[in-house]
Hints:
The complex is a heterodimer. By secondary structure, chain A is an alpha+beta fold. Chain A is built from 14 helices and twelve strands.
Amino acid sequence: MTNAATERTAAELALGETPSFEELVDRAALAEMVHSFFELFRLPIRVFGEAGQILADASEQPALYAYLHTSGAGRRALADVVTRVKTLDPGRESEAMFQCVTGALYQISSITYDDRQLGRIIVGPYLPPGSGDPPESLTALDPKLDPARLRELLAEMPRGRPETVTQIVRHLTKTLDLILFSGHKAWLTSSMHLASVRESFRDLSDKNAKLQQAFDRLKELDRLKSNFLATVSHELRTPLTSIIGYSEMLSEGIAGDLSPDQREFVLTIHEKGEQLLELIKGLLDLSKLESGTMSLRKADVDVVPVIRDVAQTLTPSARKKNVELQVHADGVLPTVWGDAERLRQVFLNLTENALKFTPDGGTVTLRVLPSYMERPPDDDAGFVLMATRRAAVEVRVEDTGIGIPEPERNRVFDAFYQVDGSSTREHGGTGLGLSIVRRLVDAHDGLVHIEENAPRGAVFVVRLPCRRTTMA
Amino acid sequence: MQIDFGARELTIKLVYYGPALSGKTTNLQALHRAADPSAAGRLMTLETRDDRTLFFDLLPLTFRDKMGLSVRLKVFTVPGQVIHASTRRLVVQGADGVAFIADSQVAETQGNADSFMDLKENLKASGMQLSRMPLVIQFNKRDLPSVRSDDEIATLAAQGREPVYLAVATQGEGVVETFIGLLHLTWSGLDAEHDLTRKFGFDARVFIEEVASKLGSQRSLPELLGTCVGGALDVLKPEAVR
Ligand SMILES: Nc1nc2c(ncn2[C@@H]2O[C@H](COP(=O)(O)OP(=O)(O)O)[C@@H](O)[C@H]2O)c(=O)[nH]1
Ligand SMILES: Nc1ncnc2c1ncn2[C@@H]1O[C@H](COP(=O)(O)OP(=O)(O)O)[C@@H](O)[C@H]1O
Ligand SMILES: [Mg+2]
Ligand SMILES: [Mg+2]
């Protein structure tokens, strides 16, 4: 497998170039064919390549030509004939007739394949039946040549009717064309086979190298990150756990009775401690998502049980706030391709928010419905093909709370962003929840956006695609 | 594309892409059948015993204009089966235009989309961009019962930018239309890039009409181009092609 062969193949494949005659036809087989032609018709035949090289030859030198070779003028005349029949342009019709000094005829037919001239077939010299006298061009050639001898030798020349010879050569050309086509096909098949194997190999090595690179990078990143993350989480959480634990014990009076003021202060310490812990957990999640070190364990997930589980988890806090929490999931739903635990986190976050921002007497509804993802986000090529590209599941978290004004709807997904800073004090929270939601949804190739809920409240709409089926 | 100024010869490569069994080979067969013998060479099919395309099909078409310019069109198909990914990548190399043959059956919707993604990736792997590739889409097998509706396709097509054709390749319906749409789009793109009209003193409209008539169509070019559905017609105007 030389380099040149590869390049040839690539160029061939790029534009369907035709290989040369010799690449398409077996020389020995061609010689055999030409020979059997000669056996059958007794007409001299030669096949030349486009560069003038002889590819097959089944002809004996006629005795007349041997005799002419004994004379200088005869030799020159014959050399001229050879040049003429090898270079004569058969033109658009692809066939021509040439008459040489001896009066003998040559039938010249070009071999074309795919509109390209590959060579020529030359049949001759031969004489039409009946012709006897040497033409003047022959007798006048050299006075040293004996006219009687010429006449005698001329009579021994191969004979054929020009129309018949033309027919025979046409048939031969057609046969040869078929052979060329088969040869081309075989040639293409084998070069394609070779090229495909090479391409597969190249592709695999490429992928391997990329995987190795990504693996090395991730390993390094993982080492750095997880070191850092492990340290942070350990170093921060350990003391924080103590703060939370001891303040809780204090508030419960384990270390002696507290005055109402003392109790209130201790409870504040406890509450802020819990908040800080939440913040640290959120930051950890976020940085894992950002660094790409959060590994999702994807499988076909039925979303409905996930949603029901979220609702069940949050029912107590909904009751406490006197907010009604409902789940609607009807009809047949496809499974989505995702990590059930992370999806649970998404809907827990959204539902917590909905409950948090919905006042007493309100309703929070979790709705699951079949849907589809309209198109890949960044490209509109092939819309008609991609439009219904992937089936998806839509989850709507609807509340009747304070709502989110239009201009804020994108910004709430930024880390730490809260619509009303003062609400932090009222509602608590870190402002990290939605940025985690967005990143998790992204990691599932999904989309999340906010809609208005009439007459009041907000709707968070999450769409998660189903698995891409492989080609049939 | 290959240009040989000396021989006044131009070779253009067109590729029929799509999922397995969507009708790519059938399209080429119908083109071959429709084409005047003076224009079409033999249709070469490299296929396996079970009729599936192994490597590709190749239909060579040659047209000569009055000025002596000869245009050689090499029309390829790709094998749709997943395992032939490397072959698809090879065949698509150097393509000047692509006809995407989709199977209209509802059940094939996902297969079409997957194959389209595959096209995009394979072009990218060969350093080409789908968004810059002259592209027409054909929804084939319109004669089958459970196909996506004309309305649905028209609505979606109106939102996309590629011309979309409906076809029954087995009956030759929509085949020449798809091909002429592709040729027109491809030529406009190549012309804009290489200034062919000026260099060769070539009338594209006359040429494409000539091709259409050699493919047995009596209709005028605007009429032929007008058979695509959706609002994508304007991409067929040369000035709309970058
Ligand atoms: N009913 C119907 N069948 C078609 C049509 N076009 C192609 N087919 C059939 O679909 C099958 C696959 O076609 P083929 O051209 O080999 O697909 P390729 O794999 O894309 O080359 C064959 O059995 C065709 O006869 C069509 O328009 N209508
Ligand atoms: N259901 C909702 N109704 C009204 N506002 C909301 C709702 N969900 C989120 N928000 C707004 O988006 C902000 C960011 O939310 P999030 O990232 O979850 O942080 P947090 O809940 O910790 O404040 C909230 O502070 C609030 O202003
Ligand atoms: Mg929150
Ligand atoms: Mg095929």
